[in-house]
Design a protein that fits this description.
The complex is a heterodimer of chains A (about 260) and B (about 270). Chain A is about 75% helix and about 0% strand. Chain A is mainly α. Chain A has one domain. In chain A, helix 3 runs antiparallel to helix 4, helix 4 runs antiparallel to helix 7 and helix 4 crosses helix 11. The longest helix of chain A is centred in the C-terminal third of the chain and has 32 residues. The radius of gyration of chain A is 20 Å and the shape is globular. The relative contact order of chain A is 0.13. Chain B is an all-alpha fold and about 270 residues long. Chain B has a two-stranded antiparallel sheet with strand order 1-2. In chain B, a hairpin with a 2-residue loop joins strand 1 and strand 2. In chain B, helix 3 runs antiparallel to helix 6. The interface between A and B is large, with 36 and 40 residues.
């Protein structure tokens, strides 16, 4: 485990090397997501139907914080495969999956933590607080690593295709867009058609953003949260199994010389 | 003057030719990136149709008018991703990795060269979708269109593109002043949502900030208002002056900043 601890420390150091870059990378989409709250407030102003603007404000603050867990890039992994640098992980006693997982995970969680530390106090100053119960906070924290694990496995499935194709970043981004749209990061699922709300319970999308946000805002009871967590875990393990299968198949046929 | 213009014009098209050849070489990449672009465009339309369906208006804009605005945004976005993103990425990389020397020694304007050398064709479908929906939406609004209105719309679309370009170029030029900033090119794309909504969405401090101080909120709104026959002269004049001013400022800022460049040995 010591070597993976070292990977974690090195990833953190790498992240903190260019702090202005880290700041920009962390907050670049937060403002964009918060703008959606403004948009809904403008709609609510003219609407005859009741739109809970307080709920929407809380929702988008949480969405901005959670955004990074399902929206990250694995360009470096793709480049390693394409240029043959992956060889160094294949001939050394280190698991490529764990290496990349810890490397990306450190960056992703650092960004989420920074965002939480900056955005929650600012939101509280503006009168937007979550009032989450301790039990729900615990469930919410349980969701976070599983979301990242599932999304990382899925993106790595797409990235593994780089063993066969020249460029796969567009495939990864297509998956990311589908998740952005259907997970509730941009639109709370409550505004989606009812049939989608029904089937979304069993799909991998909503447990990535909408469900944990609902947990944070005390909108789900324990059994609903548990069910959603179970669905997330099931899909994450499925993506992981698929990734392992693809990776094994790819590395068996992988050839590299003179690197 | 004429000779110089002709040289730059020919250079512009030569680069397009090269990019087209590159596209034909990597056809799969083009196919997948086009899919991403179409997905994203469809998402945008669906997103706003969901919001509009909640109330039928957003900040005084009805459904058809909102489609005009979103289509205007889509057309601008197609150009943004096709031209600005590719060029600005190459531009900032060339500063960070010391490749700027190559451009500085070429017998053409450096700003022109770094701004036009790249482009992608992945957003062609986005552009087509934007234009088709725009035409349909304008028909649905039943606003009478004259040639003058269309010309004014096109003029302000060009001004909007100039404004986006200038802003992005100013931000990218900051690369001369900092050590390494990979995310510098993500800054303008991250603010795109601000010009995706009508300016009426902004109220209070946000209104002053995004329509007067840094009029991002006017980028799509002003051309759309012109097409819908509700453009206000004072806003058009203000926005026009601001866009041209930004372009002049970006050129001046580049001239100042390039003096800080110290790359050698390329």
């Amino acid at each position: 485990m010591a070597k993976y601890w070292l990977v974690f420390k090195l990833s953190l150091l790498q992240l903190l090397e260019y702090r202005l870059d880290l700041f920009l990378g962390t907050f670049r989409y937060a403002a964009s997501i918060m703008l959606l709250a403004l948009l809904w407030m403008a709609v609510a102003k003219e609407s005859t139907a009741f739109i809970d603007t307080r709920y929407l404000l809380q929702y988008y603050v949480a969405a901005a914080i959670l955004y990074g867990l399902s929206n990250f890039h694995l360009d470096e992994v793709e480049e390693d495969i394409r240029l043959g640098y992956i060889s160094k992980y294949l001939v050394k006693p280190i698991s490529p999956f764990l290496f990349y997982f810890i490397n990306s995970g450190t960056k992703t969680f650092a960004e989420v933590v920074i965002k939480a530390f900056v955005m929650i106090p600012i939101a509280a100053l503006l009168g937007v607080s979550f009032g989450t119960s301790l039990a729900n906070l615990f469930i919410f924290f349980c969701f976070m690593p599983v979301i990242f694990f599932g999304m990382f496995s899925l993106y790595l499935v797409a990235t593994s295709l780089a063993f066969w194709f020249t460029s796969v970043d567009s495939i990864r981004l297509s998956i990311m867009f589908v998740f952005r749209f259907l997970s509730g990061i941009f639109i709370p699922i409550l505004f989606m058609p009812e049939w989608f709300q029904y089937i979304s319970r069993w799909l991998p999308f909503t447990p990535v953003a909408f469900t944990p946000i609902q947990v944070l805002l005390n909108k789900l009871d324990f059994s609903q949260s548990l069910l959603a967590f179970g669905v997330l875990l099931f899909w994450s393990l499925l993506f992981f199994a698929l990734q392992q299968f693809l990776w094994r198949k790819a590395t068996h046929s992988y050839e590299a010389t003179g690197i | 003057m004429y000779k110089s213009l002709r040289k730059h014009w020919r250079l512009f098209w030569k680069f397009r030719q090269l990019r087209l050849m590159l596209l034909l070489e990597y056809r799969n990449s083009f196919f997948f990136w086009s899919l991403v672009s179409v997905l994203w465009t469809a998402f945008n339309y669906f997103f706003f149709s969901l919001i509009v369906s909640a109330n039928n208006t957003i900040a005084g804009w009805n459904q058809s008018e909102m489609y005009v605005l979103i289509s205007t945004f889509t057309i601008l976005d197609a150009f943004t991703w096709s031209f600005f993103y590719a060029n600005m990425t190459t531009y900032t990389k060339s500063i960070f990795y010391g490749e700027m020397t190559t451009y500085l020694t070429r017998p053409v304007s450096t700003q022109f060269l770094v701004s036009i050398q790249n482009n992608s064709f992945n957003n062609i479908f986005r552009l087509v979708i934007g234009i088709v929906v725009l035409v349909k939406a304008v028909q649905a609004t039943q606003v009478p269109l004259s040639l003058g209105t269309i010309l004014l719309y096109v003029t302000f679309m060009i001004l909007s593109l100039l404004f986006i370009y200038s802003l992005w170029f100013i931000v990218a030029t900051c690369a001369f002043w900092v050590e390494r900033l990979d995310n510098i090119n993500e800054l303008i794309p991250a603010t795109r949502r601000m010009w995706q909504v009508p300016r009426g969405v902004y109220s209070g401090l946000a209104s002053t900030l995004f329509t007067v101080i840094l009029p991002l909120g006017l980028i799509s709104t002003i051309p759309s208002e012109i097409l819908l026959g509700k453009g206000e002269l004072r806003w058009m004049v203000y926005y026009g002056i601001f866009a041209v001013g930004s372009l002049l400022f970006s050129t001046w800022f580049f001239r100042i900043s390039v003096k800080r460049y110290s790359g050698v040995g390329n």
